[in-house]
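pinging the channel bc i need a second pair of eyes. not urgent but kinda urgent?? the chain im working w is below, pasted from the shared doc
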Amino acid sequence: MPYVKRDSEGRIAAISLDEQAGFEPCDNSDELETFCASLRTESSELAATDLPLVRVLEDLIHLLIDKQVIRFTDLPAPAQQKLLERRNLRTSLKNSLQLLQDDQQGIL
C-alpha cells in the first residue's frame, strides 16, 4: 500500500512505498492517479522547453567564444565534442537545404 504526505489543503504532496513519518496510508487509487498524472504533465511541459533552450545555450556559447569572453578550449572535452558535432550537423543541414546558388538569388 502506498503512503502519502498531504499539503495544508489536504492534497497529496508526496508518495512513498515505505511508511515514513508524516505519511499516511492511502488506498484511494483515483486520488493517486490524479497526483501521478499531474507529475507527468508538469514533467512533459518542462521537457517541451528543453530543445529550444539547448539551441539558445549553444548560440550563447558561440557568442561568448566569438566575443573572446571564453575560449573554446576552456570547455570540457565532451562539451567541445558535442558543440563541434552540432555545428557540423547544422552546417551540413544548411548546405543540403540551400536550393539556389548565391548568384541565382531571386531568379526562378
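so The chain has two domains: 3-48, 50-98. and The two ends are 70 Å apart (CA to CA). — does that match what u expected or am i reading it wrong
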